[in-house]
Design brief:
Length: 119
């Protein structure tokens, strides 16, 4: 799934759980649906969902403001609403930029304290 540029769907997530965890396809589907429902329910209640090493989903309240119709330039009131925000963790940011958590690029080996320098 990684690096292909495709959109990952619920079906893809269920298949990954099936392949990697070993649950049946029915159990894998139920598991994915349960996790997504729990995240959704928490967000509906206004709770922050923090997934370690991944990121945080939170609901933010936006007050009423004045917007502008781009075609006519007419001012239009935009009603107050709640919006969902995702803030990726530092670890996720590093991974999508090809770095490991220690700041090294993926594929680089960490320096060994036992390596001998030759001169």
């Amino acid at each position: 799934m990684a690096g292909t540029g495709k959109t990952v769907t619920r079906v893809d997530l269920c298949e990954a759980v099936y392949q990697k965890v070993g649950l049946s396809r029915t159990e894998s589907s139920a598991f994915v649906e349960l996790v997504l429902k729990e995240i959704t329910d928490c967000l509906e209640r206004g709770e922050t969902v923090k997934l370690s090493s991944f990121g945080s989903f939170m609901v933010r309240k936006k007050g009423q403001r004045i917007g502008r119709n781009p075609k006519t330039g007419t001012e239009v009131p935009i009603s107050p609403r709640r919006v969902m925000v995702f803030k990726p963790s530092a670890i996720l940011k590093q991974r999508i930029n090809g770095q490991q958590a220690n700041g090294k690029m993926n594929g680089e080996s960490a320096p060994s304290e036992f390596s001998a320098e030759t001169e």
